[in-house]
């Protein structure tokens, strides 16, 4: 991955839509940015992050609006994939699968975040969803490699 593509990926990780702005796709970037703010506000995402970092997992679970929060992983990983694709990266067939499966696994982690404990610890919507990134990336990469061979 060249420096320009990596830069656009990192900006999309920072905030959905920024990678599209760097690619000159201003309308798409604006739509993604507006959607990010809408979902962020409606799901109480910033408050949930703050509570999770302070160890207030039970409050984060209560405060989360899951009907809105479940849109965030798809928006987030679509924004990353789209920025990389428009910058000229991910030319291999099925390279999008890592993004798709990661969004799926993170959403599943989010669904079970109020009930699932790991080693007896309830991680909540932020930490459990973040942990589900790794199996999503691995699974998507493996499926992509199988389909490409």
TrEMBL record:
It comes from Salipaludibacillus neizhouensis. Keywords: Membrane, Transmembrane, Transmembrane helix. The chain crosses the membrane at residues 66-84, 96-114, 126-147. This is DUF5683 domain-containing protein.
